[in-house]
Design goal:
Layout: H1 2-25, H2 29-35, H3 39-66, H4 71-80, H5 84-100
Helix pairs in contact: 1-3, 1-5, 3-4
Length: 105
Amino acid sequence: MQVDRAQQPIAAAAVTLVLWILAVASFLPPLFKYTSQSVLLIIAAGIAIFVCLVLHLIFIGIAAKRLGRSPVLWVIMTLCTMPLLSIIGLILFEWFSEHDKPAAV
């Protein structure tokens, strides 16, 4: 089944998305006063944002290829609508993949 083959990259994409959101959150007002006090934290958060974004796009491309979709199209769509489409897409994928699985007897 194609859905089973895509489960692992989709899970990895979800993890990298959560880490990306946490890294971006370090620059938002409640946490920015702590982040801005250290150049090392600013650099670490910036590197984390970049690495998580690249890994997220790679995992989305792998999942799209395993599902028989166009990886380039999915990566471009994800990049242009980050993070909203990624969140909605991952939720919908998990929702529909659970309904497609046969019931265990």
